[in-house]
Design goal:
It is a single chain. By secondary structure, the chain is of the alpha/beta class. The chain is 25% helix and 21% strand. The chain is built from eleven helices and 13 strands. An eight-stranded mixed beta sheet has the order 1-12-13-6-5-2-3-4. Strand 7 and strand 8 form a beta hairpin. The longest helix has 16 residues. The chain is globular.
Length: 384
């Protein structure tokens, strides 16, 4: 007999254990624009999520490389004004001013000779920012035409075509740089069934080859309007009006006033207020929001603008140094010309949206802050 035979051992099969319960802390989900986790953050290769990351009062500005919609401080604005004063005090010489304005396409040809398609990143964010591009590229969208003004090396048209499901879509990629057009035509992705690259100046008297008036559904103007002299804006707007069908849309993005590129302009680059020549000879203008409303939404260029100064800017109006507005539509019949002129006077573009996209970029190693500023809008040609 074992030593435990007389011991009463209770049946523990029916006993329950009352162990203390432990509660884990709730997991706070970090949104991708705030995450440092490689599996849960926005990569540079993703379409950029504009407006996602706000700099809050308790945030460390050097935690991330970029923040959205950050307004410059009073000190930043004072520095910007001091930079402008220094730029005005050392303008472009009259000789260089004439040289750079006389044939701007020459300088862009040189630019694209030195900087091929790899210079600019593909604009993968286009459909996100401009929903009309999703509509015209749908499989059942039917016959659609997109005109890109200032197509460069194809960093806009080719991303659109890669996501296109519409067999009846054609993108007209136009630039006044023959070298840029050559780069598009020589690209592996170039297929003239869906993209037509043509040399065309948006300020010229003619429309692009293969296009007629009111034949285009969407006009893309991505960082191109700023390359024009202010005296050319009127003709550019009238040409866009001519070529866009009623109900068609202009997708616009360009440089805003106070952008880092403007603040950093060196001496000898200032040509007139907010208009500069870059070191490579190309021109750039920095826009204000109210200024663009005047240009596109208030019909600023629909009627004569007498009394402006020679620099083309006074009291929010702009001087047209090109021939008379009628000259820009000489290819039209007399009746059509009068109709279009009358229509443009009465019905400027409808501004669907027009905003300022500000971004604070930081150099975390050097503890530097850099402000970027872009203007983005959608302008619609009214239907009759």
């Amino acid at each position: 007999m074992s030593e435990t035979a007389d011991i009463d051992i209770p049946d523990i099969s029916t006993l329950s254990l009352n162990l203390p319960t432990t509660t884990s802390e709730p997991q706070i989900e970090v949104p991708p624009h705030r995450s440092h986790d490689p599996a849960n953050n926005f990569k540079r290769s993703d379409p950029f999520q504009f407006g996602s990351r706000y700099l809050l009062p308790n945030d460390d500005p050097y935690e991330f490389n970029a923040w959205d919609h950050v307004e410059p401080s009073a000190a930043d604005l004072a520095y910007f004004q001091s930079q402008l004063a220094a730029q005005r005090a050392s303008p472009v010489s009259p000789f260089d001013k004439s040289r750079f304005n006389s044939s701007p396409e020459k300088w862009w040809n040189r630019f694209y000779t030195n900087n091929t398609a790899n210079f600019f990143k593909d604009r993968k964010w286009l459909q996100q920012e401009f929903p009309v591009l999703k509509e015209v590229t749908k499989k059942d969208a039917g016959r659609r035409r997109i005109l890109e003004v200032g197509a460069g090396a194809g960093n806009t048209c080719f991303p659109i075509l890669r996501g296109n499901e519409n067999p009846e879509l054609v993108v007209y990629a136009c630039d006044y740089s023959s070298k840029a057009v050559q780069l598009i035509r020589e690209a592996e992705a170039y297929d003239d069934r869906y993209v037509r690259a043509e040399v065309w100046d948006v300020t010229s008297h003619e429309l692009p080859a293969g296009l007629e008036e009111t034949s285009v559904d969407v006009v893309l103007m991505i960082f191109v309007f700023s390359a024009l002299h202010p005296s050319q804006w009127r003709r550019a707007v009238s040409n866009v009006w001519r070529i866009l069908r009623p109900g068609g849309e202009v997708c616009f993005r360009d440089y805003g006033r106070g952008d880092l590129a403007q603040v950093r302009m060196r001496k000898g680059r200032w040509m007139q207020e907010n208009f500069y020549i870059r070191g490579d000879g190309t021109r750039v203008y920095f826009f204000g929001q109210d200024e663009l409303k005047e240009i596109w939404g208030n019909g600023a260029f629909a009627e004569g603008t007498d009394g402006q100064d020679d620099e083309g800017l006074e009291h929010g109006k702009f001087r047209d140094e090109t021939p008379d507005f009628n000259d820009s539509i000489t290819a039209m019949s007399s009746s059509d010309m009068n109709h279009s002129k009358k229509q443009l006077k009465k019905t400027p573009f409808e501004i669907q949206s027009l905003g300022v996209d500000r971004r604070l970029l930081v150099n975390r190693q050097k503890q530097l802050k850099m402000f970027r500023c872009w203007m983005q809008g959608r302008f619609r040609k009214p239907s009759p």
